[in-house]
Structures are given as C-alpha cells and as structure tokens.
From TrEMBL:
Pfam families: DUF5682 (PF18934). Residues 120-146 are annotated as: Disordered. It comes from Streptomyces sporangiiformans. InterPro entries: DUF5682, LolB. This is Uncharacterized protein.
C-alpha cells in the first residue's frame, strides 16, 4: 500500500482525477473498492453535504448539477455538474452504497460566489463553471485564461501528441484497470502533476492556492476523526498541493478576510449538451455522449457504438445494414493500428462512420455528432430536493398539465378551445413574462386562427436559475407573473412597451395586473404626442382585443383606450407625414400599414368588446363603419396632399383601392398625375414603390390592370438618362420582391405591348387570359363544387348560380 499510495503510507489516499473522465471514474471505483476507506472526501462545495444523501434516491438520474446561488441575488450562481461517468459521482455513490460518510472539501460557495464579484452584475450565463482540464474543479471560474496552463495539453505535447483528448484516451481510457494495480494510475498521474506544479506553480491562477489551503484543513479534520483511512477524490492538479506539508496557521492565514454571502444549494437536472464546451459551460469534455458510452458499455465498446450509430441513421431513413456495422468496426480497428493507437478512439470511429455509413458525407455525420457524440440526455432530480416555492409550484403545474421538461427540442400545438391546452398556453406565457424562456412561440402548421397556438419547447438547465431569480416576485407562477407585470408597467419607458405588456397580460390571463397596466397605458397615451409612438402602440393594443373572445377575458376597457388612441392617430397622422426625408418617409409608411391593419380589426371587435347597456362605452367604441370611414378620410388626405412624400401617397392610394373606397379610374388618374413629366423622377419612383411595392400584391395588380402597367411603362421609358441611375435602385427594390412568375408575366406584357396605353380598357387580354368567359371550363368544376358544398344534384338554376360564383 505504500507504493500504491504514491510512496506515502502514513497519509490519506489521494485520487487525482480528470473531471468527467470515464477512465478516472472506473479507476476511482476500483481504488475505493480496494482501499475500503472510512470516509470519502470529494472536491465540491461543503454547503452541499446535506444533499449527498439524495444521490441514492431512485428519482436521481444523472447528469445532474449542484446549484448554488446567493439568497438575495439568485442570478449570482454557480453549477457543479456531475455525470454518471464523473469520478466525483462514482465516489459519492460508492460511499452511499457502503455506508461510508462522504463530504465535500472545496472552498465554500459562500466565498466563491462573491469573491472578486462585488461590482459585477449578476448574470447566470456567466456563472462559474467546470474546468476544461484536469486542473480546474467544477464550479470554478477562470478569469485569466491567457496565463492558465492546460496540464493535459502540456503532458500530451511532452508525449508527442498534438491532441490532448487523444493522449488522454490512449493513456487512461483505453488502459483499463488491471488486477493488483488499482492505485497505479493515480501514482503515475500524481507524479506527472507534481512535475508540472514544480515548473508552473499555480499555473497562473492564485485562487488555487486558497482553495487548496481549505482542502488541506478539511483533510486534517477528517484524519483526526478517522485516522489515515481517508480517500480524497480531487482534480489531479491539486494532488501535489494536498500532499505538500503546510502548517495550519499558514493555511488559515490564506483564508482570512474572504468575502461572504448567504447561499442556498440544491440539485438541478443537467444535460450532456451542457457538459460540452460548445455550451459555454466549459465542463472539460467535447464528447459527453461518447464518454458516457465508454463508461456504461460492459464490453466491446466499438461494436456497441457502431450499432448505436446504425440505429440512429436507420431512424433517419438511411439504408444501413449489418454489413455496414461490421465493415465500420473493421475500418476503425485498421485505422487505430495504422496510427499506432492501442484501441480505436472517437477519431477512428468517426472516420469509419463517415466512410462506411455516410458515404463520405459530413451531413449525416453532423447528426451523429449532435445526437450521440454530444447527446441530449436530461437528468432527473427527486421531488424531495430543496427548491424555492416558485419551483415547487412550477413542478406541480408541469405534472398536472402533463408538460414534462425535455432537453430535446419539440413542437407543441395548442387548441385554446380545450381547457387543458388553454392552461398550458397561460403557463408558458406567464413563464415568458417572468423571463423563463422554456417555450418560444412558433408558426402554426395548422389553422392560423386565433384559437390555435404553436410553441417550441426546450428545457435548459440554466432555467433553474431563472426560476430562482423569479422567486422574488411571488411563491406561485400566477402571483409572480402578476407582480412582475405590474412592476414592468411602472418601469416601462415607451408607450409601445406598455401596449405590448397589456397584450402579454391578456395572453397570460393576469386579471389582477391588467387594471394597473391599463391605467398606466391610458396615462402614457394621454401624454404622448408623438404620432409615431401612437402608431406603434395601436396594433398591439388592437390585437389584444381578440383575446376577449378567444380566452374569455373582458376587454371593454382596452377597447375604449384603443379607440381613443386610434382617434389621436387619425388627427395627428397627416401633419406628421409632411416634409419627411426618404428614411423617415419609409418608416412612416410602415406605420400607415400597421394602423390600417389595426383599424380593420378594431372595427370588427370594438363594438363587441363593450358590454351591452354601457352607452358611454358604445359611443367611445363607435361603430365599425364609423371607425373605418374616418380612417378612409385620413387616407384620402394622405393620397392627395402634395407635401406628403410619394411613398406614403402611393401607399394611401393603394389601401383605398384595396378597400373599394377608390375606383379603378380614379386610381389610374392619380397615378397619371404623379407620373406626368412635371413630377421629379425620384418622387415618382417612390410613389410607385408605395403603390405596388412592399409585398402587397402590387405585381398581380399590374398583371390584371393594363392601364396601370401602361402608365408605369410609359413613365419609365420617358425617364431622362441622367435621372435613370438615381431611380434604378428604388425600382429594382420594388420589382425584385415579386414572385418569379409575376415578373415573367409582366415582362411578356411589356414585350407584347399592353393594348392601347392609357385608354380605359385594353384591346386584348394578357397572355393566358381569354377575352370572354369560357362557360365549358366553368361547367367542369360544378360536380366538384356540389360535392364540397354537400348539395344535391345540380339544377339548371344552380348551374347558372355556380357559374357566376366560379
């Protein structure tokens, strides 16, 4: 035992490991089984000692993480992730299975969470995390990466390797644990780390010295209680420091004066993806799924891995046979022999999969890397783990609504007419209001009606921090969302922010918060004189009115504010549109489009939103025709006032034409006036963009109305050469947005010559259109129409009616 313990028979058993290394995990299990210590000390925050027993709970499924956060500032937090193949997890599980005490001995989180962070804003995305090498513990930050060495990289370079991962696989992962040498790997690794510490000291991170001083104190305490039958599982980088002789006074001096904060700790689920470097949490491994496979495979790991890959590719409808698996295994073994490796590693298996199963393509290989090499395994934590009240309420709602958190992204379609789906929608909207982005709205692939919602769900481990942060607003999701909405309304700076918040309150069904938001909205709307702000606020406000029908929420107060806001927009819009430059005019054109859509919806829902018998409210809401009539009057003013930019005038004419408030002849007359020689080419081009641009279907309008196309064509051919280069970019932007078929048809019309240009009607129909109605072709659809409409056999009268419809 003297040699197996690195030449020290009178000290603790120091097991230096690589965090999240399956080879280290197997070696730790073998060493503990051989040494049978009376106590196991593990690198980690001592505040978590009370949580160790939960690791034996049946509901605890790694990967999991210890979460520590400052009680008054939950955003100031840190994670200590542990996977099934983490040596620390294996040590804890061994201790629990053999009734041996287990303790954490790293510097307490009460210091690490505030040490050097007093002036930093809390940010969960920047919390301390695990190492990218064997020198750094889970939960440790690296503020000076430029000076910090990577022990594995140094050892790999010394051994002639250019890849530290490949060196580690060859030396540790592929070595295995032989009978009689359970302690040998630790002695060799401790000797190597001792040489590195002698050459590099703390490796550029002085905090290691403080942490190691605390560890030495904890080891001494355990030795006084249990003698030398103490096993210490820590990063291999720390082994030389723990073996070094230092006085108690010297160690305590290093710890004197450290800042403190009150912290809370719990277990939270973790994922394999968050164990990888690509996640930003730097836990030290690039391939957690591969490492998990190496740790769990009882034998023939390469054959089992290739079988997993084949199953994944088959699920993606790729033709993979048993022969592919056999050939891939043979190729991996051959590559390992050619490269001088004891066994095939991830590099060899990846190359074999690419050549044999993916036919040289990296596209399916990307799927293999994402699903298997990294993986989306999500751990589970038992309900008995400590949690803030908000977390417990959220877990209760998730169970009741059958919304299980999952690491793999999935889409959820909700029908708001069903009570369970409506409750799911309210929960997701409330969580988004609290900043807990579990679900993100998505485009529905089914109906586009307001009674349907689509969500994209994906549970990320750091959402546990967001839940803890949101716990300051209330103990339940409803109470917290209500308090947060009220606070956001008071703090909102822009009117559009308040209207958007009102919409979110309706979506989340927060009846107690809505009156506060509406009061602030009315006050802000009364004081804001900027028409642009009012125009931005109106669409969101009007959209919110729909939810009175869909979700059963009373919105009559919202309707009154919306109508008042619309009236102020009607009055202030014409003066606000005068004398604008090109950029401001384009922005205002967007406001005009938004207000137009809002007015159309407002006219439909405003009256319905006012309860019967409320005369004042009915007068405020107005009638559907009255609201639209006032808006159409505003559009006529915009269309005919010369001081208004062309892009806005053209858009106003187009909106009136689409609503049937402007005859085709009058639209052609206004276009003719604008495109006359007396109008500057730039202004005329802007008018054209407003009339037929912006994705408003203007291309089809020109296809079906040759008078308008003739006016545009005649104007374009008459633009002077010196002005043509100025208007060309604007025209290209306008017409390039059309569908290819529309552009092709317009080109054919211009090449053919669209009738007598400028006349009231063309002399011939465009290509593909007959001048007269083809009654025989119309009759052919009648049987199908009767079938779709569920009508009886067609009669002569029905035929005539349906021909007219078709």
């Amino acid at each position: 035992m003297a040699d197996s313990r690195g030449g020290h028979s009178d000290g603790p058993l120091l097991l230096g490991v690589r965090h999240h290394g399956p080879g280290s995990a197997r070696a730790v299990r073998a060493a503990l089984q051989a040494a049978r210590p009376r106590v196991v000390l593990v690198e980690g925050p001592p505040e978590a000692d009370a949580l160790i027993a939960l690791a034996a709970d049946e509901g605890m499924q790694p990967p999991v993480a210890l979460l520590a956060h400052v009680v008054d500032q939950p955003g100031r937090s840190a994670f200590w992730p542990l996977a099934e193949f983490s040596p620390e997890w294996v040590a804890i599980r061994w201790a629990l299975e053999h009734d041996v005490p287990a303790r954490f001995i790293d510097l307490p989180a009460t210091h690490t969470l505030v040490w050097g962070r007093e002036d930093e804003a809390p940010d969960a995305s920047a919390t301390p995390s695990g190492p990218e090498d064997a020198a750094q513990a889970p939960g440790e930050s690296s503020p000076d990466e430029a000076l910090r060495i990577d022990p594995l990289a140094v050892l790999a370079e010394t051994a002639g390797y250019d890849d530290p991962e490949r060196w580690w696989e060859d030396v540790i992962e592929h070595r295995g644990v032989q009978d009689g040498e359970a302690f040998g790997p630790f002695a060799v690794l401790a000797e190597a780390m001792g040489a590195l510490r002698e050459a590099y000291g703390s490796g550029g991170h002085d905090r290691d010295l403080v942490r190691e001083a605390y560890m030495r104190l904890q080891v001494r305490t355990a030795q006084r209680e249990f003698g030398d039958d103490v096993a210490v599982v820590c990063g291999a980088w720390h082994v030389p420091a723990l073996r070094r002789k230092a006085t108690v006074a010297a160690d305590r001096a290093l710890l004197r004066g450290l800042p403190k904060a009150k912290v809370a700790m719990t277990w939270v689920p973790w994922t394999h993806r968050r164990l990888s470097r690509i996640s930003g949490y730097g836990a030290g491994i690039d391939s957690p799924g591969w490492y998990g496979h190496l740790f769990s495979a009882p034998d023939r790991p390469i054959e089992r891995w290739m079988t997993k890959v084949a199953g994944l590719l088959r699920d993606e409808d790729r033709i993979i046979s048993s022969a592919h698996v056999i050939e891939a295994v043979r190729l991996a073994d051959t590559l390992a022999a050619m490269r001088g490796r004891p066994l095939p590693g991830l590099t060899e298996t990846t190359d074999a999969v690419r050549a044999v199963m993916c036919e040289g393509s990296d596209v399916p290989l990307t799927l293999v890397h994402d699903r298997l090499v990294v993986g989306d395994v999500l751990g589970e934590v038992p309900a008995s783990a400590p949690a803030v009240p908000l977390q417990r309420d959220l877990a209760r709602l998730q169970r009741r609504l059958r919304l299980k958190p999952e690491a793999l992204e999935r889409e959820l379609e909700l029908d708001l007419r069903k009570e369970n789906d409506a409750e799911r929608s309210r929960l997701l909207h409330r969580l988004r209001l609290l900043g807990i982005e579990w679900g993100a709205p998505a485009e529905s692939r089914g109906s586009t009606g307001t009674f349907r919602e689509a969500w994209r769900l994906r549970w990320e481990p750091e959402l546990a921090v967001r839940v803890a942060e949101a716990g300051v607003w209330g103990t339940t999701v409803l109470a917290a969302a209500t308090a947060k909405a009220e606070a956001d309304a008071v703090a909102a700076r822009a009117l559009a922010d308040v209207t958007a918040l009102a919409e979110r309150c309706l979506l989340a069904e927060l009846p107690d918060a809505l009156p506060v938001v509406m009061r602030i909205l009315a006050d802000r709307a009364a004081l804001d004189a900027d028409v642009g702000h009012l125009a931005q606020a109106l669409p969101a406000l009007v959209r919110s009115l729909r939810y009175g029908d869909v979700r059963g929420t009373g919105t009559h107060a919202l309707a009154e504010v919306a109508v008042g806001l619309a009236e102020r927009v009607f009055v202030g819009l014409p003066p606000a549109c005068a004398a604008l430059d090109a950029e401001a005019a384009e922005e205002m054109r967007g406001h005009v489009d938004a207000v137009h859509g809002a007015v159309g919806l407002l006219g439909e829902v405003a009256t319905a939103a006012v309860p019967a018998g409320e005369a004042d409210g009915a007068r405020a809401a107005g009638t559907r025709s009255g609201i639209r009539a006032r808006w159409h009057s505003v559009l006529r003013t915009l269309a005919t006032r010369d001081t208004i930019p062309g892009v806005i005038r053209g858009r106003a004419v187009r909106l009136l034409l689409d609503d049937g408030e402007l005859a085709q002849d009058e639209a052609a007359r206004l276009m003719g006036l604008v495109l006359s020689p007396g109008t500057a080419p730039g202004d005329a081009a802007a008018w054209i963009e407003g009339f037929v641009g912006g994705g408003s279907g203007g291309g089809m309008l020109l296809v079906h109305d040759e008078r308008l196309l003739g006016l545009v064509d005649a104007w374009l051919t008459g633009v002077p050469a010196d002005a043509f280069t100025d208007v060309l970019p604007l025209l290209r932007r306008t017409f390039s947005a059309y569908e290819p078929g529309v552009r092709r048809t317009l080109g054919e019309l211009v090449r053919r010559g669209p009738g007598v240009r400028g006349n009231a009607a063309p002399t011939s129909a465009p290509p593909g259109f007959d001048p007269e109605l083809d009654t025989e072709r119309a009759d052919a659809v009648l049987p199908v129409l009767h079938l779709l409409l569920g009508l009886d056999e067609p009669t002569a009268t029905d035929d005539n009616d349906l021909v007219g419809v078709s």
